[in-house]
Amino acid sequence: MATDGRRIVYNPAFVEGLKPAELERVLAHEVLHCALAHHCGRGQREPELWNEAADYAVNTILLGSELVLPAGVLVDPAFADLSAEETYARLMKMRESARLPNANDDQPGPMRAHQDQDHGRWGPPRGSAATTDTPYTSCG
Fold first, then answer.
1. Model confidence over 21-73: pLDDT tens digits?
2. Which of 69, 50, 51, 36 is nearest to 120 (CA)?
3. For residue 112, pLDDT beyond 70
4. C-alpha dihedral sign at 50, 131, 60, 35
5. Which of 135, 120, 43, 134 is nearest to 89 (CA)?
6. What is the CA radius of gyration of the chain?
7. What's the pLDDT band for 101 if we cut at 50, 70, 90?
8. Cα angle 134-102-11, degrees, rounded to a multiple of 5
9. pTM for the whole thing?
10. Average model confidence (pLDDT) for the chain?
11. How many C-beta atoms surround the C-beta of residue 4 within 10 A?
């Protein structure tokens, strides 16, 4: 699944393969992105790194709920209680310190997104109308 702030799009095959509790968690994840206005906050930030920072923020909130997060989602105590903006800044500093690869690097780093956080498989194919590559909804 993915969101542009106004709608949540999904890959039907992905959704059909989910158990009800998994679907609940994935929907909560996307709704929180909307509620926290992550679609408004990216600005000129690198899209993939912004998405990771936003995922850290959302998943930290979901940890405090009764929803069960699958193994491998982006959660790190170093980012607990930080906004997506604060997490993004820290991730950028980590990259500059050579502890986090550039989004264009082929080698995964210690904190790169796990398959469960690959929104590309949750939503429509890349290049379609609503992917994380499209401009975000105007906010303001």
1. 999 999 999 999 999 999 999 999 999 999 999 999 999 999 888 888 877 88
2. 51
3. no
4. positive
5. 43
6. 14
7. low
8. 40
9. 0.71
10. 78
11. 19
What size, in residues, is the chain?
Answer: 140
Kindly give, in sequence order, each residue whose CB lies less than 8 Å from that of residue 17, ignoring residues fewer than 6 positions away.
Answer: none
- Match 């498989």 to its residue by tokens: 121
Complete DSSP assignment for the chain: -EE-SS-EE--HHHHHTS-HHHHHHHHHHHHHHHHTTHHHH-TTS-HHHHHHHHHHHHHHHHHTSSPPPPTT-S--GGGTT--HHHHHHHHHHHHHTTSS--TT-SS--TTSPPGGG-HHHHSSPTTSSSSTTSPPPP--
40 token code pair: 């408004």
- The one-letter amino acid at 99: R
Side chain identity at residue 78, one-letter code: A
**The two three-digit tokens of residue 121, written as one number:** 């498989």
Tokens at residue 80, please? 């607990």
